[in-house]
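My hope is that you will study the protein record below before we discuss the fold together.
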Amino acid sequence: MDSICALAKDLNLKIMEDAAHALPTRYNDKLIGTIGDVTCFSFYANKTMTTGEGGMFCTDDDEIAKRVKVMRLHGINRDVWDRFSTGASWEYDVVAPGFKYNMPDINAALGIHQLKKIELFREKRERIAKIYYEELGEIPGLILPRLYCDMKDHSWYIFVVLIDRDKTKSGIGRNEFIDEMTKRNIGTSVHYKPLHRMTYYREKYGLKPEMFPNAEWVFERCVSLPMFSAMTENQLEYVIASVKKILL
């Protein structure tokens, strides 16, 4: 972010951060959401905190905030709360071709209380990550994520490992590993399938797997282990024991 901010300053650019998974992440002791001009977070059901659907937009630029407030709801210059409050004027105007991007009040109510617990959620995820590193770090063929920051500065949204078939004692690869975990009623996932493998991008731009060898190498090996703040001791122990049994 230091390099990006310096470049943006030199070229008079705005910085918009996609921080969908990064709440509450820190960079140089600053919370993500306080660095760029605009930061967007996701509150989908599987994120570090959830409102069921929707997200949050952060900025300290008053003009950008004003524009977003207009564009999020049909381009109307006053929101419903202002217009329907006791004693307020009903008058309003559509001043731009806006969208229907507003979060429902019920979802926002959930989010306010989830936000109060976000650091507690993060601490619980961090604890799970620490145990994964301690228990799984010596398994041949299992590559754990490399850390480039303090664990407390990481959101621990997901815990992605790589399975190198050529080095595992059992000789199984990622897909077989997922099958074996499924047999044990353990949910895993792949984050994420590369864009060049998606039909639309593949066909529109003529993309081929061999054009992206590094992405292919990671994709063929990556799998996400269970990581959620409500994970119990028994569940965590069961996942770890299952991984060891499958790979060793």
Notes: The longest strand covers residues 38-42. The chain has a mean pLDDT of 94.
